[in-house]
Amino acid sequence: MTERESIPDGDTLMAPAQNRPETMTTAGVDESVTIIIIGASGDLTRRKLMPSLYALYVQRLLHERFAIIGFARRAYDEASFRESMKEAIKSFSRLPVEEARLEEFIRCLYYHSGGLENPESYLKFKARIRDADRFPANRIFYLAITPEYFLTTIANLDRAELIHPVHEKSWSRVVIEKPFGRNYESARSLNHNILTHLDESQVYRIDHYLGKETAQNILSFRLANSIFEPVLNHRHVDHIQITAGETLGMEGRRGAYYDSAGALRDMVQNHLLQLLCLVAMEPPGNFTADALRGSRAQLLRSLMPPSPGEMPAKTVRAQYTAGFENGLSVPAYLKEDRIAPDSKMESYCALRLTIENWRWAGLPVYLRTGKRLKKRLTEIVIQFKQSPLQFFKTVECEGDFCDLTRSQPNTLVFRIQPDEGISLLFAAKRPSMQFVVENVAMNFSYRQTWHFSLPEAYERLLLDVMRGDSSLYTRSDQVEAAWQVMDPILKAWESQPNIPLHTYTPGSWGPAAADDLIRQDVRSWHNSD
Fold it and tell me: Is CATH 3.40.190.170 the right assignment for the domain spanning 17-177?
């Protein structure tokens, strides 16, 4: 049977007329597209990509003419691939699944079995998608594959002439998952080699943290409210800290990847630095993708890692020991599946960086992330300076019982996940005959304000790549600038014997050394109870 004959004759790219909106919303996609997921048999496709594409479909944000093709080694036929994706959508969709709509969506799914390193697979694929009625000429190639296959896959796509040149009417875009390089040199080399096959405008380096609704809200909070932006500078802010804690360890066969990456590469170099960009970058001259990405790159270039002599005091790395998480016994990092028994890879790290530019003038930034921590939590904390004169006594109260305490500075917190929202801590007079103040919080909660689920990050990012909006994607100079900050730390950890690999117990906030790191500046971590 030929590839053409394997496509059921009754399939259609067009949703039934009664389910089509009369006009496309401004938020939707106004061009037909074929989405090719390379590595479609993997977990990312099942858990994130396919449920997100289904959510866009049921919200009528996709163009009425679209096709989704899975490309992988596994010997699926079309029917088994569709069935697998149907079950994945039922399991992981954030929206209620309507059987009729799901069947409409599934009819637009196809599958091509081929080896990533086999040029012949791409030529066969090219022959298959020549049917322009079934497969629109605009193409998105989503590389849901491990990094060692990025360049080989892109080169094979280019040689098979599957990627349209930038001057053609039909377009091609390539989405690349992290990690993008292991250090500055490898990232620079990967960028250079990829750009021999693609134009920068065709490359979409994805960081799903930038697609989170709460991360996007940081810019609107800063730029749509005139009372906050004027105080976000070194004259008013004492420091910034960003925490990304996970309660999970190496579940889901993750150990093989994680033990080659570690916390610094896996979380700090991309996610945490991108969040820092959103909260600390200069406002762009306009709200275009180039202006936004330029501001983020400028902020990254102003970040300063500790000097070699400061590394032992201003960086911390650690591994978790055996212990208990939510009452359940969990193994030590070194005893996890697919972890080398003598591994020196960190499952936790904490850093102190500074921002050296006009706005921030050496302001300290504290970053921490780790596995098997006390809470699943991602938050950005902007702590303001203390008032110059302390006129009032400050109390901390539980019910009717109050104790005098030191005054707390105003704190602005962006909660990225979970319990998404924004809070502002400030002092208010406590009702009493004494003039004492108590710290209170002004809270905004997504859940309490809008009674619907937040879009998944991948929904927004997939929609943006279809629209050609690269605002939330990472440009090559951003990737390289981030690695230039991380490289000195990685090299110090490899070469300086006086930088220990600490340990910490599961269910804690990390090693005591991380508390010492911030305490030496007479500060403390937020939300570390």
Answer: no
